[in-house]
From TrEMBL:
<dbReference type="GO" id="GO:0004497">
    <property type="term" value="F:monooxygenase activity"/>
</dbReference>
<dbReference type="GO" id="GO:0005743">
    <property type="term" value="C:mitochondrial inner membrane"/>
</dbReference>
<keyword id="KW-0479">Metal-binding</keyword>
<keyword id="KW-0408">Iron</keyword>
<comment type="similarity">
    <text>Belongs to the cytochrome P450 family.</text>
</comment>
<dbReference type="GO" id="GO:0034650">
    <property type="term" value="P:cortisol metabolic process"/>
</dbReference>
<keyword id="KW-0349">Heme</keyword>
<dbReference type="GO" id="GO:0008203">
    <property type="term" value="P:cholesterol metabolic process"/>
</dbReference>
<dbReference type="InterPro" id="IPR017972">
    <property type="entry name" value="Cyt_P450_CS"/>
</dbReference>
<dbReference type="InterPro" id="IPR050479">
    <property type="entry name" value="CYP11_CYP27_families"/>
</dbReference>
<feature type="binding site" description="axial binding residue">
    <location>
        <position position="482"/>
    </location>
    <ligand>
        <name>heme</name>
    </ligand>
</feature>
<dbReference type="GO" id="GO:0006704">
    <property type="term" value="P:glucocorticoid biosynthetic process"/>
</dbReference>
<dbReference type="InterPro" id="IPR001128">
    <property type="entry name" value="Cyt_P450"/>
</dbReference>
<keyword id="KW-0560">Oxidoreductase</keyword>
<dbReference type="GO" id="GO:0016705">
    <property type="term" value="F:oxidoreductase activity, acting on paired donors, with incorporation or reduction of molecular oxygen"/>
</dbReference>
<keyword id="KW-0503">Monooxygenase</keyword>
<dbReference type="GO" id="GO:0020037">
    <property type="term" value="F:heme binding"/>
</dbReference>
Amino acid sequence: TMGGCRAAAAGALRLTAFCTRTQRPLWPGAGTGASVWARRSLSEPAALEPRRRLKTAAELPGPSWFTTLYWLFIRGYGARGHLLQCLQKRRYGPMWRSRFGPFQLVNVASPRLIAQVIQQEGRYPVRVELPHWKEYRDLRGQAYGLHVESGPEWHRIRSVLNPKMLRPREVSVFAPVVQSVVDDLLARLELLRRRSPDGATVPDLAAELYKFGFEGISAVLFETRLGCLQEEIPTDTLRFITAVNDMLTLSDLVVLLPRWSRRLLPFWRRFVQAWDDLYGVAQKLVDQRMAELAAQPGNGGGGEGMYLTYLLSSDRLSRAEVYISVTELMLGGVDTTSNTLSWALYHLARDRPAQNRLQAEVDSVCPDRRPPSTQQLGRMPYLRAVIKETLRLYPVVHGNGRLVSENEVVVDEFWFPKKTQFHLCHYAASHDEEEFVAPEEFLPQRWLQLESPSSHCGRATPGFYRHHPYSFIPFGVGVRACVGKRLAEMEMHLALSRLMQHYNVHPEVGSPLIEPKTRTLLIPSRPINLRFLPRA
Ligand code: HEM
């Protein structure tokens, strides 16, 4: 399918583009710099088609900045960015323009259109310019790192980080250390559960799972256990977790506020402080580990050992780049896996048949509560389906970005100049009822081929649950996709399977339904408390 889409996108590019020349861009920023006339060579297939006039961004429907402000601040969509995607899609169709502070956005919310943008993203795709992140890095003289860096420089860093992070075989090297972190998680949940007044409830599960995420990524990076899941949580861990929260909360706000407001309002100062804390903790851990490595005779590189050892021994990153890469990997590893796991458990607790089925699968592959190996995880399709379904309902990255700087982009009958900022509406796409039957329901079985409720005479209706591949891209796609995908999946699969071996999970008595909210990422709007009852 992806090949087909690629061909379709290439076909669209081959069309001769006839755009009306406008003296002044109808939509500020849309036509600047590049010529509005886009002529492309007439190659064979396109020549047969009638000449088509391509429209410009100015012809897209969309709300004014004033209307957006109204939605964000008066109607309360500021913390419900995911629902704003759906609302605007209903109102304007699958592609519309909007403004977010200084950013002019072209929103795309159908998988077909998202695929077209991604397929034209070029060699060095950029998600979004993060001027405030960049400014902070400049202020402190730090390297830019993956999120801020672009072009061949970004690619160089990725090519160092990728090999040991994204190849399944390489990532399975980290399985034993992740298993030991899961041991700690189980012990920690057992302690909390026993200590609670009813002897079962673990309050604010996501908070515990943050520590699991942090310990997991740190164990992989540093080959050292920090003890985040112990009784006494290291102060640096708390500092880091608080700083992640502050930075993510302030990031969207700081970028909207004019510079002059920084002397009057506390936000920029707090944003800088949060980054100082994040970077400071990472730098300290790297330095500690380096001192340990230097003290160990015979441990002089070769890329053996854990991730940091590998990064340092590759010699392709400067020290400053190692610091910022480690900061970013730790940042990526905390909120993402923890919230996804919390939602998965939240739904399993409310869906007894789903939980039974998952437990039965884990028990049959790993009898006697033996911890699963990575090969055994591969034989647990329902486990993987539960995580997928959770990410479909709650994509932590609910909206992604693409700023295509190398070429112009054609999406359906629209032409966009270089440097157009696209907003890829992951949430709207994965909740689209044209793609997913009963999109608001938690139905892990939709990911298992051939299972469908509309089976006829005992035979499943093939394709009942089929969807466009780009309607579900929680980790992004292409060369800029999530670098932590494999590790995140391994962590979530190991933790969830082992939790299922040990506990029956129940909702708190009388607990309300919990909606997600947006705080840069999509997270639960209130703490998820669950009861953990040991399995007989
Ligand atoms: C449930 C777990 C996770 C989800 C859903 C997720 C999702 C994403 C998404 C959607 C992107 C943007 C990709 C794109 O633009 O195409 C991204 C980027 C990134 N993620 Fe993750 N992520 C997860 C876990 C992690 C973990 C555990 C780490 C760290 C080990 C991590 C590190 C990163 C980094 C460093 C980037 C930036 C990559 C670049 O710009 O080149 N993520 N993630």
